[in-house]
Amino acid sequence: MATISIQQEGRALEIEVQGRVVRFHAIWLRDNAWDDQTRSPGNGQKLIRLSDIPVATAIADARLEASVLTLTFVPENKVVEYNLAWLLEHAYDGVPARQKGWIDACLHTWDSAAMAEPPLGCFNAVHASAQALQGWLAGLARFGVAKLANGPVADQALMQVVDLFGYVRETNYGRHFEVRSEVNPTSLAFTRQGLQAHTDNPYRDPVPTLQVLYCLENSVEGGDSLVVDGFRAAQCLRDESPAAFDLLSRYCACFEYRGAQGVILRARRPMIELDPDGRLIAVRFNNRSATAIAEVPYGEMEAYYAAYRRFGEIIDDPAMAVRFRLEPGECFIVDNTRVMHARTAFSGTGMRWFQGCYADKDSLLSRLATLQETLGDA
Locate the TauD/TfdA-like domain: which residues (predicted)? Predict the structure, then answer.
């Protein structure tokens, strides 16, 4: 049973439900009204500006019947109904203080002990079944990485993967790129060398937020794929040395790429990126693309480099990596703002031929949200 009371001469409302007390300001309540004069019934977008709401907005009357809260605002004399559950879900009173570097509860961080293999989907199943697609996308969103198996061994089959949820992010590499050894490579990715775990394209702003790597041939010795959860690595650094975590999140690193003629890409972003409220939102780590760091004061540069070195050591720890081998017709996707990928060196007379492309996470999350709304949570 809930009780309500008007507070601060109408400038606030207090709701008590099962011992929980939350308060809402009148201006917040009025701004978040869902009547068809305030928001479009079709898409939920606001039809008014904040300046259309009187500065002196107050609550003149409040009534609660079952789960419906009805408020009357003055000086507009406007009556608005609210769903009580929606209000409690969006309550901002009493939000607990969070540790710097906190992570959304819907995300699960991992290392090799916590995740033996990325979430796996079947190519045909996720194309044929909305439930299978929802489960696979949910795993990708939760863990930042997922695999698909039993796909076609065909040129640009990876486009069919992106079509499941969104759109290709075209870059100077084209709509897709070939990952195989070359005589004069424009990137170390196109050699037989092993690659340290890294996020792709840190020299772009905004960075592509998803990367797809699709196997068409893998008959070499070696060339295994590895993935590392950058959020778990950042947590480890924070727990071990809050000062080191602070340095890598407070100062920008600098990244640059000079490839084919006419391409010079630069970006400056922290290696560990936080929201203004301290939420961990991205990791950028790519030693190959790092350029001279000139954003750190002289007095803190040595400590910054020590933090940088330690972060790299955590990332390189074999216990952090999940290792697997892709066979033709298999692919994996990583959240490129979070999960780093790597490969072991390869040799022999065979061929390792992958195709890759970029996409963006907003479309994936949109597709997942619509599936969850239709089918319920996975």
Answer: 128-358
